[in-house]
């Protein structure tokens, strides 16, 4: 995502251990924590507990309430995955154990009482916070109820063993019980305030956005401005047809929101009745779709260009800051650009005086998938003007390239990550184009690119800059190299005399985020920090309140 500064979403951990790991872990850890508490109390207090009592008390404290929570959250909350529910239970089980260790160092009965109840409040508040964020603020009443059920079991176990025998004044019992509910309600009020602030500024629900990202839901954003962007179509025919769609739309912003799944949707549709792939033009998140359904309008604009059987060899120029690769045919040109340190470009940087029906400009976007650049080139800056001069100079060079017979072969592999391999042969020069439906590329694909440089005169690797699934991208470290090898082999075998053509046409009116995207990102960034600070202050107040 780079320059949009919302990498926090991509860096979240989406792959949780399976239930066959989590449930045995919950049981085993209850024993570990029970004997850990027994050891701590033996060392730091005069209390001595028998092993049978440790097992009984430990199961009632560290096992039963958390098994209950793990199943209850899944059953009661709408579409809440069981693996999420049990993982939250595992986390809170650990939190309770940490408080138990702190309890073993309490010097007075009053302090011990406060630590116990602060532990209950923390578990309760953790549940409310996580469930609200991952489910949605609209379910706050149900969330308060199910979280209270687990806390009630913990409180009941506490009173069963020691709560009523400590000689604590009645008012402190009432105060502690009331504090559990007050803390949860106060947390909800904080989060409702956050929700109000972001909705008043961007008309987007922060909790709908967050829970949708976590669930990978498809949602429309009630934002944006009407536009009719160009959709360029590059077609290659060697007896079979390859259609490469290059809409002047950015595949974002995130997950299923807006056009995050645009590249995958286009690739799937193009391959339903033929063969096709998605090309990423240099643009920014301001060109994100607001409504994922508008992908249909993009597909409607894919056209059938006139084609020619003559093309130039691939021309390459490296200007230091940026490098270009290009080929001309029948008065048309296709250009690939690469700058390792740049993530995105404003649409006007390169194409402000160029016709989309004459020049197809593709951003290779082949940075490291986990450590990509964060720099964005803004229109009207000195850097943008300098890059534009390089681009114009390159086009001038490209115009002088002679034409020759054009041969090509291609193959598209559909899977978890769709792949394209295309081999072009012009005047004996062999060029390999490898594409992958990701946001950046993994190290193993880069290694494959380097390997093929021994076999081909030019190797161009690109990604679609998709934001389709941040669940996958956040944890993606390897690609399907074997599938890419098979695709390259198939494309090489498929090489035959071919024709190539380019055209462009605009879509029907649709909504692009434009400057609303900046408002959304600025609000999210500010409120993430505001929420974190508020929660720290809230916890500090809780400690002061209980002691």
Fold and architecture overview:
The protein is α/β, with parallel strands linked by helices. The strands form 6 sheets. Strands 8, 15, 16, 17, 18 and 19 form a 6-stranded mixed sheet that branches. The chain has a 4-stranded mixed sheet with strand order 7-4-3-20, covered by helices on one side. A 4-stranded mixed sheet has the order 9-10-11-13, with helices on one face. The protein contains 16 helices and 21 strands. It folds into 2 domains: 15-215 and 522-546, no CATH class; 224-513, no CATH class. Helix 3 runs antiparallel to helix 4, helix 5 (109-135) packs antiparallel against helix 6 (140-161) and helix 7 packs antiparallel against helix 16. The protein has helices spanning 7-10, 19-44, 51-76, 82-103, 109-135, 140-161, 170-202, 206-215, 262-270, 295-300, 348-351, 382-399, 443-452, 470-473, 481-493, 515-546, and strands at 218-219, 225-227, 230-237, 241-247, 253-254, 256-258, 275-278, 310-312, 315-318, 323-329, 332-338, 342-345, 359-363, 375-377, 403-413, 419-426, 429-436, 458-463, 496-497, 499-506, 510-512. It is 49% helix and 20% strand. The two termini are 44 Å apart. Strand 17 (429-436), helix 13 (443-452) and strand 18 form a beta-alpha-beta unit.
């Amino acid at each position: 995502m780079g320059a949009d500064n919302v990498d926090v979403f991509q860096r979240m951990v989406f792959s949780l251990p399976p239930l066959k790991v989590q449930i045995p872990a919950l049981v085993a850890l209850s024993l570990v924590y029970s004997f850990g508490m027994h050891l701590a109390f033996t060392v730091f207090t005069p209390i001595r507990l028998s092993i049978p009592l440790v097992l009984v008390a430990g199961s009632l404290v560290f096992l039963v309430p958390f098994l209950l929570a793990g199943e209850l959250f899944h059953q009661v909350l709408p579409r809440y995955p069981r693996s999420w529910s049990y993982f939250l239970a595992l986390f809170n089980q650990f939190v309770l154990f940490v408080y138990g260790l702190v309890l073993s160092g309490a010097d007075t009965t009053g302090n011990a009482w406060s630590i116990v109840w602060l532990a209950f409040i923390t578990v309760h508040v953790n549940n409310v916070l996580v469930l609200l964020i991952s489910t949605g603020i609209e379910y706050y009443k149900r969330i308060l109820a199910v979280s209270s059920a687990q806390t009630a079991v913990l409180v009941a176990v506490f009173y069963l063993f020691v709560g009523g025998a400590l000689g604590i004044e009645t008012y402190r019992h009432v105060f502690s019980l009331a504090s559990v509910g007050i803390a949860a309600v106060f947390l909800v009020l904080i989060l409702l305030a956050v929700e109000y602030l972001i909705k008043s500024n961007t008309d987007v629900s922060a909790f709908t956005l967050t829970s949708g990202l976590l669930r990978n839901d498809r949602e429309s954003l009630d934002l944006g401005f009407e536009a009719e962007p160009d959709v360029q179509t590059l077609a290659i025919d060697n007896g079979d047809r390859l259609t490469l769609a290059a809409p002047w739309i950015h595949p974002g912003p995130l997950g299923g929101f807006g056009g995050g799944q645009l590249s995958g949707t286009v690739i799937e549709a193009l391959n339903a009745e033929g063969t096709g792939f998605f090309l990423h033009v240099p643009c920014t998140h301001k060109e994100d779709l607001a409504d994922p359904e508008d992908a249909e309008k993009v597909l409607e604009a894919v056209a059938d260009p006139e084609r020619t059987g003559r093309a130039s060899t691939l021309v390459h120029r490296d200007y230091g800051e940026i490098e270009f690769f290009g080929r001309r045919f029948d008065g048309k040109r296709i250009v690939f650009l690469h700058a390792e340190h740049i993530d995105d470009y404003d649409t006007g940087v390169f194409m402000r005086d160029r016709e989309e029906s004459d020049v197809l400009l593709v951003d290779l976007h082949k940075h490291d998938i986990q450590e990509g650049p964060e720099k964005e080139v803004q229109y009207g800056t000195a850097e943008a003007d300098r890059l534009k001069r390089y681009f114009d100079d390159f086009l001038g060079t490209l115009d002088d390239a002679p034409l020759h017979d054009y041969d090509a072969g291609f193959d598209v592999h559909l899977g978890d990550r769709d792949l394209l391999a295309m081999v072009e042969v012009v005047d004996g020069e062999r060029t390999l184009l490898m594409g992958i439906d990701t946001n950046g590329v993994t190290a193993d694909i880069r290694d494959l690119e380097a390997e093929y440089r021994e076999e081909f005169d030019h190797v161009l690797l690109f990604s679609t800059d998709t934001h389709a699934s941040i669940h996958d991208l956040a944890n993606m470290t390897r690609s399907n190299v074997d599938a890419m090898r098979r695709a390259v082999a198939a494309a090489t075998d498929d090489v035959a005399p071919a024709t190539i053509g380019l055209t462009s046409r605009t879509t029907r009116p649709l909504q692009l985020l434009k400057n609303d995207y900046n408002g959304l990102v600025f609000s999210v960034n500010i409120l993430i920090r505001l929420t974190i600070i508020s929660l720290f202050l809230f916890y500090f107040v809780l400690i002061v309140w209980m002691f």
